[in-house]
Amino acid sequence: MNEARLAAPRTQYVGFVLVPKFLRWRHVLVGGLALHSAKVFPTRTVRTGDRVVDAGCGFGDTAIALARIVGSSGSVVGIDCCDAFLDVGRAEASAAGIANLAFVEADVQSYRFQPIYDFCFSRFGTQFFENPVAGLRNMRRSLKPGGEMTMIVWRALADNPWLALPKQIVLRYRRRRAITRRPAVQVRSRWPTAASSRGNSRSPAIQKSSSNGSTPA
Fold first, then answer.
1. What's the pLDDT at 217?
2. What pTM does this model have?
3. Is residue 131 assigned to a domain?
4. Which of 24, 111, 178, 195 is at a distance of 20 to 30 A from 53, taking alpha carbons?
């Protein structure tokens, strides 16, 4: 199948669904997720003068924070596949007078990294890779010898019930409506469990993945 045909639905989803919703609720997303990176950064060995890449940087708040840490003698590159998100980061970096930060629109899974970075970071970005193995290997290629890679990702659904509860409530409500409002003859089936458990939406797979210290070979 043509790659352009495969990419079209993803492009439409990003442009017409993901971007408007994320921009609308950016203050909630950034405000909440910043708590996680604020706890992690002090535990990492990011130094003044380091070269850093922020993979899947989104609105760029983590890239801006890293740019402040490495100072004017260091540099940060924030990479994301959504240029609308990067525009927010560019505007905020410019308003803050941060000159050691560049934003690049690219797919982290296939971006041609040079092994020049001291630190590779990602906050809730790697979990959306279509090919996690290829993506993580490519991120590792960005590091020079002795470089460090750190990721923040959600743990399993069992450890984060708030991620699954909304869908469970919606599906429970939909099933209740189907039972009480539809004529009995319409809900009879040879496979009643399949008919009652399937929904129109799927939540993305959430995988546990983390790396501390030096990356594995």
1. 38
2. 0.69
3. yes
4. 24
pLDDT digits (tens, 9 = 90+) for 66-119: 999 999 999 999 999 999 999 999 999 999 999 999 999 999 999 999 999 999
Give the range of the structural domain holding residue 79, as residue numbers without chain letter. 9-159
Report residue 215 as tokens: 């990356």
Residue 147 falls within a domain, yes or no? Answer: yes
CB-based contacts of 133, cutoff 8 Å, min separation 6: none
Number of domains forming the structure of the chain: 1
Residues with Cβ within 8 Å of 72's Cβ and at least 6 positions away in sequence, in order, are 99, 100
